[in-house]
Write a structure and sequence with these properties.
Helix content is 40%, strand content 14%. The model has no long low-confidence stretch (mean pLDDT 84). Helix 2 crosses helix 3 and helix 5 runs antiparallel to helix 6. By secondary structure, it is an alpha/beta fold.
């Protein structure tokens, strides 16, 4: 059994850094980015999540529409881990939702109710204790729970890759 310590915290969207190694984005092991570079790859990762040439491969526009209409509701938690020696947090789970939030904030023109709902987000921090390998196992376990038959399905390739990494 994997022991995962989680702490609920409140963060500004500006403190959230999208994961450049999100399984939706990484096609092969050679495409993997050094996790320490996530902050420097912030804009590139955002653009990759949004898609190119007007395509919306990850359904971000649908999430944006929902947030514009309903405001932000933190029913489905975003999971993060602190980026060492910073006040920034790497998004482990919830990269599509964070992408939508960042897109909406960048575009502006939100109602005051929606803008207020996006100022401070309740997220779940995965506490890093132990080795990097143990932390990676915790994250893979969490992501596997969330995406294999859970709320947001990964593609067959992303599921297979996560299963392969777990074993």
């Amino acid at each position: 059994m994997i022991d995962i310590e989680i702490n609920q915290i409140t963060l500004s969207p500006k403190q959230l850094v999208l994961d450049p190694n999100n399984p939706r984005l990484v096609a092969t092991p050679r495409d993997r980015k050094d996790p320490a570079a996530a902050f420097d790859l912030r804009e590139e990762t955002l653009q990759r999540m949004l898609g190119r040439d007007g395509k919306d491969p990850h359904g971000i526009d649908q999430i944006c529409s929902s947030i514009k209409f309903n405001g932000w509701m933190s029913l489905d938690k975003i999971f993060v881990k602190v980026i060492d020696s910073t006040d920034q947090y790497l998004v482990l789970e919830g990269n599509r939702r964070v992408t939508a939030i960042l897109k909406l904030l960048k575009e502006g023109g939100l109602s005051s109710k929606v803008a207020k709902s996006l100022k401070a987000l309740e997220v779940m921090e995965v506490i890093h204790e132990g080795t990097d390998l143990e932390m990676k196992e915790k994250i893979d376990f969490l992501l596997g729970l969330r995406h294999h038959g859970a709320l947001q399905k990964w593609s067959a390739f992303a599921q297979a890759k996560n299963t392969y990494k777990a074993y």
